[in-house]
């Protein structure tokens, strides 16, 4: 058996003295592990860092075997994250979530969203009130929910059918609610940041990113973490904590 693919490194664990088992989110073969011989060498260790993209050839005698990877670097991103706690935790939260996907179950959209996040979340915003990394994390979580069959309908009001002025999401149905229809029950609804409906390329503000992560976190807990008896990743909680401190600093008198 042999195939060629590309993937984002999710994690690495030791195997013997010189080899490692590397877990990838591949584009066409899903979350897939394999042995990299010599993976602890000075040449390969920098390549096999979480968040990097690699090109791989996987070989095994039979499809169900662990198999062996031959690996080449495609995009080395790990070093860009070293100076930013926010970027490191955004990346860590996304990688931890991807590792919950069924093994060897193809999810091309998840791979593409993860590669986009890994490539862009390390960029520091010019405006301290913006939160591009957490915004990308919320969009990634939204795409993963959709891939797992728990997608949110954010394009039309569940009560009236209108497509404009959508301001909330029903926690029961996961569908959008307009500002007018939701006004009497707004305390029971989840705020809907506009960038989740129609990404414009503009990074969200800190408050928008917090709302977005609370929204996706609610449905991740219901459909992903809760059924597995797992807490949300620590990295995700740290992202929210950092955002809350940023929001408090922005609100403080100057």
From TrEMBL:
Q: Which UniProt keywords apply?
A: DNA damage, DNA recombination, DNA repair
Q: Work out whether the entry's keyword set contains DNA repair.
A: yes
Q: Which residues belong to any copy of the DNA replication/recombination mediator RecO N-terminal domain? A: 1-68
DNA repair among keywords? yes
Q: What does this protein do?
A: Involved in DNA repair and RecF pathway recombination.
Protein family per UniProt:
Belongs to the RecO family.
Q: Could you identify this protein by its name?
A: DNA repair protein RecO
| Classification lineage | Bacteria, Pseudomonadati, Pseudomonadota, Alphaproteobacteria, Hyphomicrobiales
């Amino acid at each position: 058996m042999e195939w060629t693919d590309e993937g984002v490194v999710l994690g690495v664990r030791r195997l013997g003295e010189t080899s490692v088992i590397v877990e990838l989110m591949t584009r066409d073969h899903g979350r897939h592990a394999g042995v990299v011989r010599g993976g602890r060498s000075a040449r390969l260790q920098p390549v096999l860092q979480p968040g990097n993209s690699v090109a791989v050839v996987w070989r095994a005698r039979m499809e169900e075997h662990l198999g062996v990877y031959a690996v080449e670097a495609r995009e080395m991103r790990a070093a860009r994250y070293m100076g930013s706690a926010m970027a490191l935790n955004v990346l860590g939260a996304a990688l931890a979530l991807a590792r919950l996907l069924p093994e060897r179950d193809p999810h091309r959209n998840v791979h593409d969203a993860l590669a986009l996040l890994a490539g862009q979340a390390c960029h520091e915003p010019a405006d301290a009130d913006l939160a591009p990394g957490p915004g990308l994390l919320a969009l990634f979580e939204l795409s993963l929910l959709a891939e797992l069959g728990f997608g949110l309908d954010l394009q039309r009001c569940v009560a009236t059918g209108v497509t404009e002025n959508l301001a909330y999401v029903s926690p029961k149905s996961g569908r959008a609610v307009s500002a007018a229809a939701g006004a009497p029950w707004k305390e029971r609804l989840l705020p809907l940041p506009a960038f989740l409906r129609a990404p414009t390329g503009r990074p969200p503000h800190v408050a928008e990113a917090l709302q977005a992560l609370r929204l996706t976190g609610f449905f991740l807990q219901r459909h992903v973490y809760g059924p597995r008896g797992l807490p949300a990743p620590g990295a995700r909680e740290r992202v929210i904590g950092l955002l809350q401190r940023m929001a408090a600093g922005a609100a403080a008198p100057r």
